[in-house]
Every structure is written in C-alpha cells, then in structure tokens.
Design brief:
This protein is an alpha+beta fold. The chain contains seven helices and eleven strands. The chain has two domains: 118 residues, Jelly Rolls (Sandwich); 76 residues, Orthogonal Bundle (Arc Repressor Mutant, subunit A).
C-alpha cells in the first residue's frame, strides 16, 4: 500500500490586521492596560475566565498542564493577538496558562464590554470573526504539522511562525529569546533533537542565534521540501 504523502502546510495563515484599540476607545469599553515582566503569569489554568486580552507589545506563551503534570506549549502570541477569548464562549475557567515571555503590555477588556462591542459594532465584529477564523486555520495547520511532518520540519515551521514570517519585511526576522526546552515543548520532541537541528540550521545559514534568534527566510525551504 503506497505511503500517504504529507500535506504541505503554509507557514502562516495571516490574520486580518485591524486597529482593535481604536474600537475600544470609541466605544468607551471597560478596559485597562496591564504590564507584565518576563516570566510573569497573566492568568493560570483553572482561574475564572471573565476578561479578553489584547497584546499591545511583547509576547505571551499559552501552555496547558495535563492531569499527570505534563506541560505543553500550545501557542506563542505577539502584538495584535487576542487571548483569553474562551470567556466569550461560556468557558467559566481558563483552560490554559498565559505567561509573558518578555516585557509585555496587554489591554484587558471586560467580558461584558467585549460582548457589547461585538453586538453593536458590525465592523469590529466582522474583523474579529475574520481574525478568529484565521487563528482556527492556523490551529488546524499546526495539528496537521504534528501528525504528518518530521520534528525537523516542525521546528523549522515553529521558528518561522515565531518570526511572524510574511508579516515582516526583509530576508531576516528576529525572535525574542526563547529556550530550547520551550521550543521542544512546542514541537513535540526532545531538547537534544532541537539542539541538533538548531545547529544544523545554523551551519546551513538558515538561522543565527546567540541568545536572540535571527531567522532567514531561506528556512522556508526546509518546510516545503518533500
């Protein structure tokens, strides 16, 4: 029986950009800005889910802890991304933990204010839905990636996503400092395998790293290679 061919996955389903903060200001939505240093927990798994958050600057790691105590990183988010939107779907508690991975500022919007905006502002509602649909496509692509691709391809795709491939100009994009342990959790492999492939990518000129990682767009060839 012929072996199934892995589906080719695009590195990023780019969400529709929009100035969300202008809607919050014009609608006088209940909100406040909170700043978190690197390593600070924004909310924890199991806490009450009563706000939606919007990243102004910085980076947020979303992780989930299993009943056996194993942690998995499920998303890395940056400026312009929402998180905690499960509050809008009836989730009474957070299903994951959000942690700042660098100095991060977030806009915290009360659930009632967000619901009112979605109801009364058709333009905001349309764009927010487009954003969430794009996020859903990204999640589906992540699942396919984990099911069909090798750990080398998964790491290359993760680095491109962290560098927001397609969103930035130029042949190189920078990634804030991130540990190989976190990369291993995101990719679903061991730290030693991540270290092996990171050295390989560096030797091939796909990346540079010395604390901060620089990703060359040529890394895309690893993802697209059959």
């Amino acid at each position: 029986m012929p072996r199934a061919k892995a589906r080719r996955v695009q590195p990023r389903a780019k969400p529709l950009a929009f100035d969300a903060e202008s809607f919050f200001s014009s609608a006088d939505a209940a909100r406040h800005v909170a700043t978190y240093p690197r390593g600070k927990i924004v909310f924890s798994q199991g806490q009450a889910s009563d706000t939606v958050l919007y990243i102004q600057k910085g980076s947020i790691k979303i992780s989930v802890l299993s009943r056996t105590g194993k942690e998995a990183v499920v998303a890395m988010l940056g400026p312009g991304d929402f998180f905690g939107e499960g509050a809008l779907t009836g989730q009474s508690v957070r299903i994951g933990t959000a942690t700042a991975t660098t100095l991060t500022s977030v806009l915290v919007i009360e659930k009632s204010a967000m619901v009112r905006l979605l109801r009364d502002e058709p333009t905001f509602s349309e764009r927010f839905i487009s954003y969430m649909l794009a996020r859903n496509i990204r999640i589906e692509a992540d699942l396919v990636d984990h099911l069909f691709n090798s750990s080398e391809k998964r790491l290359a795709r993760t680095l491109l996503l962290l560098a927001r491939y397609g969103d930035q100009e130029g042949p190189e994009q920078r990634i804030p400092k991130i540990s190989q342990e976190t990369l291993a959790e995101m990719v679903g492999t061991t730290r030693s395998r991540v270290n092996f492939f990171m050295n390989k990518f560096r030797d091939l000129g796909f990346i540079e790293y010395n604390g901060e990682i620089k990703v060359n767009t040529s890394l895309l060839s690893v993802v697209l290679h059959e």
